[in-house]
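ENTRY TYPE: paired fold submission
RECORD: A
CONTENT: sequence, then structure tokens
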Amino acid sequence: MTERYVSHQQPGQPTERDDGALTDRRRRLAWLARAAGVGLSGVSIAFVLLVVVVVGSGGELTLITRPLPMQFALALPYLIGILTLGTVAGAVPAWRYRYWSLPARIHHTLLALLGLGFSWQLATLGFLAV
């Protein structure tokens, strides 16, 4: 006689295997959200420093003549915009699924708000065409 496994789970409940896949997906989303936040911070600081150094060494005409370092700096606002969207998109499920502790979620949300503000400033100043 063959024994069959009979599940005592309610229909619609995730199985152990489904729950593990869901946990892995949440870990990946948490990692991507944190990576977007770290990338946003790093690229934003690099943009500001690079613009200050290039304009400081070349004068105001670097905005018109656009040497190679300035061309590189002017490409960074688009990356900042993309990373801002990733950071904001990562903040929503971080609150919903409680990826991190409360201070970490507040920190990530503040980082997303600062990214939105910085992107808005970049668009206002003409660095980011929207």
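RECORD: B
CONTENT: sequence, then structure tokens
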Amino acid sequence: MREIEVTGKTVEEAVSLGLEQLGVDRSLVEIEILEQPSKGILGLFGQKPAKVKLTIKSKVMEKARKFLDDVISAMGVNVGYEVLERDDHLLINLYGSDVGILIGYRGETLDALQYITNLAANKNEITPRRIILDAQGYRERREKTLIRLAEKVAEKVRQKGRPFALEPMTPQERRIIHTALQNFEGVYTYSEGEDPNRKVIIAPKR
């Protein structure tokens, strides 16, 4: 819960009720007064309560920026980034002539950087936010490549009736394969092995 709207007889009462519901100190929230209380006709009819919105302050974006700035500076690479707000996460898109260094072999460096960025930015945060790192559309391109591969291999498995083991993949990439083939007629998928050598097996349905 990052924000709530609360009513009360007075603004202060509404704020107090909101802080109680959120379970946080006043210094950790931003307060917006949506409606002032009104007494109505003759002080009796049409009375309206005060209405406020309390939003928990978050430093996730600020800490993510600082962490990435430090990493990019330490590596000495020519890379910039933009931060985009999404409903349920922050999308950070990396770009620049050296962005391939931060992608790494099949996205392994990008995944590792995403993982530690999430750890650094969400440390001690009351309401953590998921951070997704991309690099000039790499994740979308990689996903399309994996889906094409999965469908091509699945067709061969269906025709030949023999299982096929794909190369080791990250958990995110294995998830893409499983999802792509969950409704593919005549085959099923499962994972085998231990990370980082865990791989997806595409097998024929008997």
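NOTES ON RECORD B: The beta strands are 3-8, 29-35, 50-56, 80-85, 89-95, 130-135, 164-165, 187-192, 199-204. The chain has three domains: 3-56, 60-136, 140-204.
STATUS: closed
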